[in-house]
Design goal:
mainly beta, four-stranded antiparallel β-sheet, 11 strands
């Protein structure tokens, strides 16, 4: 089992930056991929970005390309999401997720951290 704990959310103004962190513990050696998702009020949870744990290959949803950067610290089993030029439409609860090697879906989820961007 892997436990994921997010931190770094908060309330900012449009144009500001935030960095989210996701600390993994437990059977971290089983992780193949980690990602960030978000859920805005009244909307379904959506994919934001992901990174392969060993190779560091990254992927982003179009609305955040050029503004968000995903990274990971393999030594400390921590993943980050640097969010720049934040917009009100980025307001959501952000979740980190882990994909276990050999799985066909994300297996582990954090509890979420709120990001609120005011106009």
């Amino acid at each position: 089992q892997v436990e994921l704990v997010e931190s770094g959310g908060g309330t900012v103004q449009a144009g500001d930056s935030l960095r989210l962190s996701c600390a993994a513990s437990g059977r971290t050696s089983s992780i193949y991929l980690m990602g960030w998702f978000r859920q805005a009020p009244g909307k379904e949870r959506e994919y934001v970005s992901s990174i392969t744990w060993n190779g560091g290959t990254t992927s982003y949803v179009d609305p955040v390309k050029g503004r968000f950067t995903i990274s990971r610290d393999r030594t400390n089993y921590t993943m980050y999401l640097q969010m720049n030029i934040l917009k009100p439409e980025d307001t959501a609860v952000y979740y980190c997720a882990g994909w276990r090697l050999g799985s066909d879906q994300y297996d582990y989820w954090g509890q979420g951290t709120q990001v609120t961007v005011s106009p």
